[in-house]
Amino acid sequence: MRPLPKAGHEKALFISSCSQRISGNYVHEIVKKNAALAGITRNVYPHKLRITNITHMAEVGLSISEIQAQSGHLDTKTLIGYIQHTASRIRKGYDRTFNDLDDTHIGSPRGNPLVNSGNLGKERYRKIAFRKYLDGGIDNRTLHSIFTNLDNEKNQRKQNKVVDLAYQ
Q: At CB < 8 A and 24+ separation, what contacts does 42-47 make?
């Protein structure tokens, strides 16, 4: 049963047995204590749970935009940095996800195929780029550059739509 919070702590989601908002240190202690009880000897901290959640979403094949929506990250660069991967687990998940992609249709005669995406869509290029990153075909810097280009083009189109709607 939730105790009644003291004055000034009414908006707290979690309150202690002392009827006060729990502190970050208290959460840290709970995570460390439960990790020790579970036999986990590695360094564990609350933010590790967020990193693990994002990693698991990537492992089962969620797209970057789906992970981004769930985690609340606005910047894909930061999001990619959270993903911790072991080659075998990630490879299994992405082999299942990408087994139907045909890389022979990626090219575009108008320049960079990742910017001029045509009918394939931004999300498909994100997946292809991410797969190439996991396969070791591109490095982290290139992956960030691709995502930045895709995001910039998307933002530019949104801005143009706002202007176009104003004149209708």
A: none
Read off the pLDDT band of 133 (50, 70, 90): confident
Cα distance between residue 48 and residue 25, in whole Å:
15
Distances (CA, A) of 47 to 81, 89, 113, 154: 13, 22, 37, 30
Helix orientation angle between 24-37 and 46-59, rounded to the nearest 10 degrees? 60
Alpha helix (H) residue ranges in 9-138: 24-37, 46-59, 64-71, 76-82, 87-98, 122-135
What pLDDT, in 10s, does the model give residues 98-125?
A: 665 554 444 444 444 444 444 357 777 7
- Residues written for the chain: 168
Q: Which residues contact 12 (CB under 8 A, 6 or more apart)?
A: 5, 20, 21, 22
Distance CA 152, CA 157 (A): 9
Contacts of 88 (CB under 8 A, 6+ apart): none
Predicted structure pTM score: 0.47
